[in-house]
Amino acid sequence: MTALLLVAVAALCVLAYFITLRNLNTAVDQALSSEASAYSAAVRSAPASEALVSATRAYLRGRETASTGMNPVLLLVLSSGRVISNSALRFETAPGNGPLTTPKNSPEFDDVTLGETDYRTLSVPVNGSTGARLGTFQVALSAESPKAVAAAVAAALAAAGLLVLVLGALVSVWAARGAL
């Protein structure tokens, strides 16, 4: 019976880990989408006389002062290969990130490893008012935090489950001795 309870606790921990990780990854994707939408709105609302590069720089400066607690890496890779970013991290050359100068027809989520850190990215095409392809906007958030939170939830459940298992075993032994 105790072995069955131990297996149940282990299964609960694994299940909790994956459910928590899935939910946190969904939240990361929503944050990436919100950031890309905010950038698109800022660039669209820029005066017609303001070039894409100037509008992007203004947006990046605004993001630095309006920190939301998350620190996304933001970059615009123009079709010419020129990069404008709020970070020294070089996502445009990261293995597995694909060439950002290659036209994308729709937003694409991807997982990219840069150095020792995993990131979740969203790449969005940037088109001019005439529909001409100008570049790709990419926003990235570290994927390490959701993994750490999911592991902490699983560890807390494992500790609680094992505590309940040990207490249950002790109460069972006490009850069995009292019955004799």
Structural summary, described in words:
A five-stranded antiparallel beta sheet has the order 2-1-5-4-3, with helices on one face. It contains three helices and five strands. It is of the alpha+beta class and 180 residues long. The protein is rod-shaped and about 90 Å long. The two termini are 20 Å apart. It has helices at residues 2-44, 52-65, 144-179, and strands spanning 73-78, 83-85, 108-114, 117-127, 133-142. The model has no long low-confidence stretch (mean pLDDT 80).
Quick tags:
alpha+beta, 3 helices, five-stranded antiparallel beta sheet, 180 residues, 52% helix
Q: SSE layout and pairings?
A:
Elements: H1 2-44, H2 52-65, E1 73-78, E2 83-85, E3 108-114, E4 117-127, E5 133-142, H3 144-179
Antiparallel strand pairs: 1-2, 1-5, 3-4, 4-5
What's a quick, concise take on this entry?
The protein has 180 residues and is of the alpha+beta class.
Helix tally equals 3
Instruction: Tell me the total number of β-strands.
Output: 5
Structural class: alpha+beta
Radius of gyration: 24 Å
Q: Widest sheet: strand order?
A: 2-1-5-4-3
In percent, how much strand structure appears in the residues? 15-25%
Pattern of helices and strands: HHEEEEEH
Task: Please tell me the overall pLDDT.
Answer: 80
Oligomeric assembly = single chain
Please summarize the sheet with the most strands: 5 strands, antiparallel
Helicity range: 40-55%
Form type: rod-shaped
Low-pLDDT residue spans: none
End-to-end Cα distance:
20 Å
